[in-house]
Amino acid sequence: MRYCINCCIHLLPNDLHRHCFRCRGPNHNNQKCPVCKGESQIPLYTDSKQMKLLAVLEVRTDHSESWNGFFCLRKGKLCSLIFGLLIMTLVMASYVLTGAKHGLLLIPSPFHYGAFASNPSLMDNESLSDMKDHYQPSKMNISYVKDYPSIKLIIDTITSKIEFITRQRPDLEELRKQEPHMFSVIPNKFLPNSKNPCWYEEYRGNTTTDPYATNSYALYSKRFRTIFDYLRKVFWNHLYHYKDKHYRLRCLPHFYIIGQPKCGTTDLYDRLRLHPDVRFSAIKEPHWWTRKRFGIIRLRDGFHDRYPVEDYLDLFDLAAHQIQGVLQSEAAKERGKMNIIIGEASASTMWDNNAWIFFYDNSTEGEPPFLIQDFIHAFQPNAKLIIMLRDPVERLYSDYLYFASANKSAEDFHEKVAESLQLFENCMLDYSLRACVYNNTLNNAMPVRLQVGLYVVYLLDWLTVFDKDQILVLRLEDHASNVKYTMHMVFQFLDLGPLSEKQEALITKSPASNTRRPEDRSLGPMLPTTKAILRDFYRPFNTKLAQVLFDDAFLWKRT
């Protein structure tokens, strides 16, 4: 039996040849068949036995394929292909519609992540741990971006929006309305013969009363319970008795180390507390002005009960006991003011105003109507403030290494910097610089704390309420290279008396505190691309800072 190769490639039994797609019917004639006609066709002879397809070799003399044969043989596969493409089209359409609905597609720019919440009141009932979702970028667009020119466009946009506008200072009556309890506890006049803002407060408890039973610092932290156990034992010995009444001496700090984190504040604190005339709060960083008085223990845990001002004042009882002993001595009366001064070293005081949005109304265009310094100045207009700063680029990397919990690397840091810059740009497109710097939602969404390095923004706001001669600004780079010189500057600023050679050596030659951990050092420096990006971002802020302080060292050109 003969089989046409073009239309009967499959080796079929003789009785099935009539089913050939092109040569239908039993009267097939190769000479008359329009497909089989011609010399180019080679008939294939087989016997009636069924053969395996893979055992047959197809032979052609002409390499040109017949499209008719192709469609004849591939009709089933072609239908399957068309059906598959149809299914794929439907799946893609469903994906696009779903993605558009959830904001995952059609992003205006590869570097525009998320949107800035235009109405902060919408988030009043959310916990702080949920705030990050409002600025959560699309996960499928986050990548390790090494393209410096692309990120530079983001920085250029931010720079073009920078305006250093002087804030309006609130009046005293407005502050009283916001914090009536605080104003009822702290008087507006203090003891005249003490450098510290101290006063006597009547104590109405008896000998069986625990004066620290409700102190939130003692309740929420086991670390401080030992301190409060000691204070309970000596409490009654330091009460002042007058006309059948008991009085306790209350004090606020004479000076504050207000910032910034990862800039050497711990080392400065450790050296200052070695001075015989300096006393600090029982806890190095109470964070009361910025967090605890609002009920914030850790930002990720949301709000707890607010710490009253009495809990904060309890932290200075150890120092108050010593001050009271000196005040009552004859020596103190003869020499006038005593030399002991109290300090407090919360590194969040300068910059952290994140809680305002949950407590203060009447904000103007997203800017906080009241800042921490407004309240400190209201009670202590003569307070002294110490600020330790550092190259903001290096500060940010140190901050990342210290606070990141896992998967730390120079590449991961670069990715987080890129993401944070994009979020900050989004904010700056719609809001003022101050509104973005103090915005809780944005600050909690950024993977790294870019805003902490915008030193001049915070400093200018502190200068709206405090005089420049009340603020000492130091550089960590200078402190690291010449500890003795910076400590002498601090002693002079605080009007501390001269030290013996032994005392000075103890303070200036002790090893540095809170240095980088060995496991973090092994990660090496940040990527050169990351450093160049951050230099560009911080440059306009450093330039303004150098102008305000009349010191080009704050440009950090040599670091």
Automatic annotation (TrEMBL):
A Gene Ontology BP annotation from the UniProt entry: hexose biosynthetic process
Family designation: Belongs to the sulfotransferase 1 family.
Gene name in the database record: Chst15
One Pfam entry name: Sulfotransfer_1
Entry GO MF terms: N-acetylgalactosamine 4-sulfate 6-O-sulfotransferase activity
Annotated ranges, domain Sulfotransferase: 253-516
EC code(s) of this entry: 2.8.2.-
Keywords, in A-Z order: Membrane, Transferase, Transmembrane, Transmembrane helix
Top EC category: transferase
Superkingdom, taxonomy of origin: Eukaryota
Protein name: Sulfotransferase
Keyword Ligase (UniProt): no
Membrane spanning stretches: 78-97
